[in-house]
Write a structure and sequence with these properties.
This protein is α/β, with parallel strands linked by helices. The protein contains 9 helices and 9 strands.
Length: 281
């Protein structure tokens, strides 16, 4: 039986690595989104080599672009089994009082509203599936339990708001059989992350060095993210975290749920999935 995945932000980094991994299984159908196909050279090449990859254009920070999803999805499928929301932005590291309005708004459009608006469009495709999994790539930067305090202000704040949305989605969609996850993918060696490390090296070498020492490759992150997604069953609604510091991070707990930490040690990092099993009152 085939499984259809819908992945945003597939041009590079974690998103590209996830698509690359999934494409190895011919039973997987992968719909991968990018903002501009002409710039997605590696992904286009991968799609040429793998007929189960289908690329569509969408800017998750633009509601009009999101409105085109139906026309682009329908030629490939009428059902989506798993939605992995990976597209995000993090372009500024500065103090709260120094960040201009447009930076805050752009980050909120892409990081918080983008995944929500895309999900609103994908809901009718997901509801047809027996799997119904939603995996939101979040960040430890959006958690009050983050062990390292940084100036990821727009990025961290918008991921925190996204976590709250996931918190509610897990509760609202549970009666329909959905499994909702918020996943922290680790400190990943992407182009954006490397630029961020350079900034920290200049401002706070201790933090910069710490981040570099624990960083993993996009391929390692993708493998771990997919393990968490695959671990979720129809009996478990999961808000998960991959912690590269050995810290289980709770991104949200609904009052009627009880938490159970499931730990799996891998070669590269610990995976912590916060499994939330619904209990009758």
């Amino acid at each position: 039986m085939s499984t259809t995945y819908f992945i945003t932000g597939a041009n590079r980094g974690i998103g590209f690595a996830i698509v690359n991994s999934l494409a190895e299984n011919l039973n997987n159908k992968v719909i991968a989104t990018v903002r501009d196909k002409s710039k997605a050279v590696d992904l286009l090449k991968l799609a040429e080599q793998n007929s189960n990859i289908h690329i569509i254009e969408v800017d998750v920070g633009d509601s009009k672009s999101i409105d085109t999803l139906d026309d682009q999805i329908q030629p490939f499928t009428s059902q989506i089994d798993i939605f992995i929301s990976n597209a995000a932005m993090g372009t500024i590291i500065s103090k709260v009082l120094e960040i201009p309005e447009h930076e805050w708004l752009n980050h909120y459009k892409v990081n918080t509203l983008g995944p929500i608006l895309v999900l609103q469009k994908l809901y009718k495709y997901l509801i047809k599936s027996d799997i119904k999994k939603i995996a939101i790539i979040s960040s430890l930067a959006g958690s009050f339990q983050a062990p390292i305090k940084t100036s990821f202000n727009p990025y961290g704040q918008t991921k925190c708001a996204l976590n709250f949305a996931v918190y509610n989605l897990a509760s609202e969609l549970q009666p329909e059989g959905f499994i909702v996850l918020a996943i922290h993918p680790g400190a990943v060696l992407t182009e954006t992350a490397l630029k961020t490390f350079d900034i920290f090296d200049a401002r706070n070498p201790q933090i910069g060095g710490a981040l570099r020492s624990i960083a993993i490759t996009p391929e390692e992150s993708a493998t771990s993210v997919l393990k968490i997604v695959n671990k979720a069953t129809d009996e478990i609604n999961v808000l998960g975290a991959i912690s590269w510091l050995g810290v289980g991070v709770t991104l949200g707990i609904h009052g009627t749920f009880v938490a159970e930490i499931i730990t799996e040690i891998t070669t590269y990092l610990d995976i912590y999935a916060l499994s939330i099993k619904h209990k009758k009152a």
